[in-house]
Amino acid sequence: MSDSGDGTGDDVDVDRWRTELEEKRAEKDEFFGTHPQSPIPPDDRDAFDGLSYFEPDPTYRVTATVETHDDPEVVLMETTAGGEMRYLRVRTLEFTLDREEPDLADGMFELAAYRLESSGDQPLFVPFRDKTTGQQSYGGGRYMELSPDRELTDGDEILLDFNLAYTPFCAYSDSYDCPLPPEENWLEVTIPAGERFES
Question: What is the pTM (predicted TM-score) of this model?
Answer without folding.
Answer: 0.90
